[in-house]
Amino acid sequence: MNVLPTLNPGDPQAADPKAPGHQPGSRRRFLQTSSLASLAAGMSQVLRWRGVSAAPRGERPETAVILVWLTGGLSHLDTYDLKPESPLEYRGDFAPIATRIPGIDVGELLPRHAAIADKFSLIRSVSHGFGDHDGAHKRVLTGRIPKSAVGFVNDAPSVGCIVNKLREGQRPDMLAFTSGQRADTNADSYSQGAGYLGKSYEPFLVGGDPSDEKWSVPNLSVVPELTPRMTDRRGLLTQFDRIRREIDRNGSLASTDHFHQKAFGLLTSDKARQAFDISQEAPALRDRYGRNPYGQQALLARRLIEAGTSFANVVMEHPGRASPADTVYNWDCHAVNCHVFNDARWRFPPFDQAVSALIEDLHSRGLDQRVLLVVTGEFGHTPRISYQKGTGTGVMQPGRDHWPQAMSILVSGGGLRMGQVVGSTNRLGEIPHDRPLSPNDLWATVYRHLGIDTQQTFPDHSGRPLPILPDGEPIRELISV
Fold first, then answer.
1. Can you point out the beta strands (E) in 55-210?
2. CA-wise closest residue to 187 among 160, 147, 162
């Protein structure tokens, strides 16, 4: 795996950095080893930590968010904000193509986007001041200036954790906050941690590749006590059935307290069980999304949201296809990592397919009013192309470096106004030209969709009450009137 490069933490405004980037046992063994008791005890401890409180009035539990997170940063110049009139050293290899909405263009490698431009809007004028992955992840995903630009551990909660906190207790048979990420990692890897809210509000991690026929429903380890893994889908579904039958037969729930009952309720929930069973989807629909990590992660997120999850994060890194030497694991398209244009030719088609399929699927199911899709990375990439010898190729090749001064974001659904572009950048794609926005304006829009008051406060580690967002306003152009 390519490691995300870390830039100079002392210069948060850095504009042009050069750094590169158990096996399922028998039922008897399962019970003898107290795994079931451990699962229940661990989950019930989580529920105790959370207090199982009812959601504040005014929230709309039917609303939800899917965040497609492009770790490494999306090159806006090659996707959503092309500059065909700029010099060659800026515009690169790709030409814009017209979409079904007059005046809106996207990159030529996104033809499926172009066909459904009436179902999404593009925001082209978001910027912030953190040019390293660490600080940018934290800045974008928390809506706050991080105390340190170094490291991915949040001092403030990510947006998903805030939603988790406020949506607990509303859907006891489902997971409020999930994160699909192919790498076997943790919430801190992508700055999804809960900061001062506490670890019990971190996401349920959905690891592995759902496009793999041997993929298993992820482990139930929302806390360290919950550690058993299932090695295949049949094993997991069988284990759910066994747990339910055991509970029904011996009446063990009668002897457990309120929290244990909620724990068992989640672990044996038909809704949770079925939401993870992606094989229930029609083969043709799975094909439409793409039989690769991008496509099947997106489809699984839709299933989870439909089942009651409030915030489903999809981390799109490696598209799962054979990797040419001049490509990179994630979206970090430095020249030392990849040939930026060959990497795009390899990566963009499955991305185009997955995102467009998700948008169309949400609309066809009538979910476009209650589900808001956000597609973004932590920053854009340099408008001016640089050249360096590639680690994998050993030859000079073009690349784009980190660029927080301008980034593009796609939004779809949420009852917002679609088929438009909000904001613009200057002629070279370097900085916002009009309607400059910050990540907080995006999240203010998201929280508005969820019915969450951004001035609601939670105490930090010192007990000081902090609002959900320190600033930011819903993006007026997106709000339907």
1. 64-69, 96-98, 105-107, 121-126, 177-181, 204-207
2. 160
**Which tokens in the block code for residue 94?**
């790709």
Phi–psi pair at 170, nearest 5 degrees: -80, -35
Tell me the residue length of the chain. 481
Instruction: For helices 258-267 and 35-50, give the axis angle rounded to 10 degrees.
Output: 120
Q: Round to whole Å and give the CA distance between 26 and 37.
A: 16
User: Is beta strand 457-459 parallel, antiparallel or unpaired with respect to 396-399?
Assistant: unpaired
Kindly compute the dihedral angle of the four CA atoms of residues 34, 188, 123, 166, in this order, to the nearest 10 degrees.
50
pLDDT tens figures, 97-117: 999 999 999 999 999 999 999
Q: Can you tell me the distance from the alpha carbon of 238 to that of 123, in angstroms, rounded to the nearest whole number?
A: 45
- Among 470, 444, 450, smallest CA distance to 458 is for 470
Phi-psi region of 84 (alpha: psi -120 to 50; beta: other; left: phi over 0): alpha
pLDDT digits (tens, 9 = 90+) for 415-425: 999 999 999 99
Amino acid type, 396: M
Map out the domains of the chain with their CATH numbers: 43-478 (3.40.720.10)
